[in-house]
Specification:
This protein has about 375 residues and is an alpha+beta fold. The protein has six helices and 23 strands. The chain has helices spanning about 1-25, 40-50, 55-60, 100-110, 225-230, 325-330, and strands at about 30-35, 75-80, 85-90, 110-115, 125, 140-145, 155-165, 180, 190, 195, 205-220, 235-240, 250-255, 280-285, 290, 295-300, 310-315, 320-325, 340-345, 350-360, 365-370, 375, 380. Strand 8 (about 180) and strand 9 form a beta hairpin.
Length: about 375
């Protein structure tokens, strides 16, 4: 009795899957595509799907693809038969392609993290021969590492910036103050050596976290012993053992922890809708205030908001509020015009971004595609939000 029912259900599911695939195919998609070295799954999906962030759901509806993540250079993707996706296997002598290139995000996986506090961490109090800076092969003296044993390894990190939620009332006014860049003690300054550029609106909102940048690593070469303490010595000696950025007084230490890279993200829309103004672009890496495809951006939402790796957002320029000159004339200052004499313009679509690293209230995302640059203060919406 059950076997015929299973057969009917399976056939029905495959029919629905085929219909769904047909509905999601982009017009003019190619009949076949040969996967090339340097491709990403997102790029390939963008060649024949209207919504490339849904490629896992569509590809998994086809039994020919055992694992939608394991696509290799040389595989032939065919779309010619009933708009079904099929894979002709190529050689397996190269690594499978990733959703996004490791080279675009490796520094953000390896060197950056966002924490709630850092003041309690051990810190560099002095350097070898009273240097101002130290590099690989030189010694750093650290306070607060009591109990550390010789041979233990630590990452040397530096507080870079303190994130606050953007002021929704001034989300697109970038003429105000910067986000808090931090000095060697972790106190706010206007820094000049930052990984990000955060020209942000004035007015701080909710605290979201402190960002720490990993500079290099060091190994305990001389632990603090009883004899040292008897002589009044209260620092642990570490040898900087890796190339990286120079170490300076005030840098903090955390234990070295292996962080395996997981690039096999499953792209998906956010788990829930956010109140307007809650989810925004906080910062753009290595740019002034804007970023395009393959640029990394920091977002004002994280695990506490239900965001995880693979979450896809669309980015939107927040619509301006303009004075209605037809009603008010051209001689009125905007500051003297009430709300009834102004027009609120609609938000403008910019592109899509996918989260690849998530913290409690902040996440990092990679801009996947765009029709205009994504800018600090832009709104984050569902990837299917109507343009």
């Amino acid at each position: 009795m059950l076997k015929p029912i299973r057969t009917v259900v399976t056939a029905a599911l495959l029919t629905v899957a085929t219909f769904s695939v047909a509905q999601e195919m982009a017009a003019g998609h190619p009949d076949t595509y040969v996967v090339k070295r340097g491709d990403t799954l997102w790029d390939i999906a963008g060649k024949f799907l209207k919504r490339p962030w849904l490629w896992p759901e569509i590809w998994q509806a086809n039994p020919q693809i055992r694992n939608p993540h394991l696509i290799y250079p040389g595989d032939v993707i065919s779309l010619a038969y009933l708009d079904r996706v099929a894979v002709q296997e190529g050689p397996r002598d190269e690594a499978p392609i990733n959703t996004i290139p490791l080279s675009d995000i490796e520094a953000f996986l390896k060197n950056l993290r966002v924490v709630d506090e850092f003041e309690q961490l051990p810190y560099v109090v002095a350097l070898e021969e009273d240097r101002l800076r130290s590099a690989s092969g030189q010694v750093a003296y650290v306070k607060g590492l009591d109990g550390a044993a010789a041979g233990q390894r630590y990452a040397i990190v530096r507080p870079q910036v303190t994130y606050h939620r953007l002021n929704p009332a001034r989300c697109c006014d970038v003429s105000g103050q910067r986000q808090d860049d931090l000095d060697f003690r972790g106190r706010p300054i206007r820094g000049l050596e930052q990984m990000w550029s955060h020209l942000l609106p004035a007015g701080k909102g909710e605290f979201l976290g402190h960002e720490l940048m990993q500079l290099t690593t060091a190994t305990v070469s001389k632990a603090l012993g009883d004899q040292d303490q008897a002589q009044g010595v209260d620092v642990t000696t570490l040898l900087v053992d890796n190339e990286g950025r120079e170490v300076r007084v005030g840098d903090r230490l955390i234990p070295v922890e292996p962080q395996p890279y997981d690039l096999q993200f499953m792209p998906h829309p956010p788990a829930r809708e956010f109140a307007y103004g809650h989810a925004k672009i906080l910062a753009v890496a290595d740019m002034l205030t804007t970023g395009g495809p393959r640029d990394v951006i920091a977002l004002s939402v994280g695990a506490a908001d239900g965001v995880d790796n693979g979450t896809v957002f669309s980015t939107w320029r927040v619509g301006s509020t303009e004075v209605d000159r037809v009603q008010t004339g051209f001689d009125r200052s905007p500051d003297t015009v009430s709300r009834g004499g102004k027009a609120r313009l609609p938000d403008e679509y910019a592109g899509h971004a996918m989260v690849f690293r998530t913290f409690d209230k902040v996440s990092y995302a990679l801009v996947m595609n765009s029709i205009r640059p994504s800018r600090v203060g832009y709104e984050l919406k569902h990837p299917d939000a109507k343009r």
